[in-house]
Amino acid sequence: MTSTPPYAIRPATPADVPQLVSLIEELAEFENLTHMLALSADKLHPHLFGDKPVVEALIGEIDGETVGFALFFTNFSTFLAKPGLYLEDLYVRPAHRGSGLGKGILTRLAQIALERDYGRFEWSVLDWNETAIRFYERMGATLLPDWRICRISGEALEKYRS
User: Fold this and answer.
1) Catalytic pick among 7, 86, 136, 160
2) Beta strands in the chain (DSSP E)
3) Active-site annotation holds for 136
4) pTM for the model
C-alpha cells in the first residue's frame, strides 16, 4: 500500500506569484546573492503567465502552506536534437527540508521531461552547497566537472546594445 506524501506539488497559478517572489528572495539570501535581486511580482508575472510565457513553476505545499518551488524552462540539445528541461531554481524552506518535498519536486520535473519526450533534465548547483550536491547525486544526477557556466549580464550585456 502506497502512503500519501506529507506534501503537495502543483503547477503555479497567477495567484502564487507574490509567494514565489517571497521564496525567491529567501533563496537569494541563502545563496548570498541578494545584491543581484531586481525581482518583483510585476516583473515575474508576464514571464510565467503572459502572452508568451518563457518559464514555468511548480509550487510545493505542506499543510496548505507554500514552502517550496521550482522554476524551469525548455532548453535544447543540438547533439540529441531534442528539447530539454532546465531547472533554474529549486528551493524548500529550511524547516521543511527532509520532508521529501525536494525529492518530490525533482521527481515531478523528471516526469514532466519524460512526458514531453525531452532528451535530458539538467540544472546547476553552487560548488559550496555540499548538502545539495550529495542530495542530487543520490537522486542519480551526474555532476559535470569539465563544464563551467558562462554568463554575460548587466553592464557587460549592455555593451552589445545596438
Assistant:
1) 136
2) 8-11, 56-62, 65-77, 82-92, 121-123
3) yes
4) 0.93
